[in-house]
Amino acid sequence: MLIEVDFAGEVPIYTQVRDQIVIGIAAGLLKPGETLPSVRRLAADIGINVHTVNKAYSLLRDEGFLLMDRRSGAEIAPLMTEDPSFDELLSNKLIPVVAEAICRRMDIEDFCLTVRKTYSFIKRGGK
């Protein structure tokens, strides 16, 4: 999986790395048990600081997406079970997105269609 970062973007680089790994998992490009590059290797490949990758990996571990072992490194965790508390977290993350859609006069049908298209796009592996 190729990770690309936008150095000029507003989103912190560690967040971009985290998000792209989560998208890779959701799209089936990264499978449970698959080993990720070492922190040093990924940092060198992308051209970013080792601490930035370490922060992304730590966040992914804390969120349950990665398993970390000093000897074997980072690997994709088994797929998670359904978590009812995720609904609230998701709602909180969506509030600013929905608010912006409303401010831009997007109706709910178009918003839901966009969400469905995006969901399908990721499930198809980004194709």
Could you tell me the strand content as a percent range? 5-15%
Determine the N-to-C terminus distance.
14 Å
Looking at CATH, the homologous superfamily of the largest domain is Winged helix-like DNA-binding domain superfamily/Winged helix DNA-binding domain
Q: What is the CATH architecture annotation of the largest domain? A: Orthogonal Bundle
User: What's the Cα radius of gyration?
Assistant: 16 Å
By CATH, the topology of the largest domain is Arc Repressor Mutant, subunit A
- Structural class by SSE content: mainly alpha
The quaternary state of the protein chains shown equals single chain
Describe the global form.
Answer: globular
Order of helices and strands: HHHEEHH
Structure description:
With 127 residues, the protein is mainly alpha-helical. It has two domains: 13-76, Winged helix-like DNA-binding domain superfamily/Winged helix DNA-binding domain (Arc Repressor Mutant, subunit A, Orthogonal Bundle); 86-123, no CATH class. The chain has five helices and two strands; from the N terminus they run H-H-H-E-E-H-H. The protein has helices at residues 13-26, 39-46, 50-62, 86-103, 108-123, and strands at residues 66-69, 73-76. The chain has a two-stranded antiparallel ribbon.
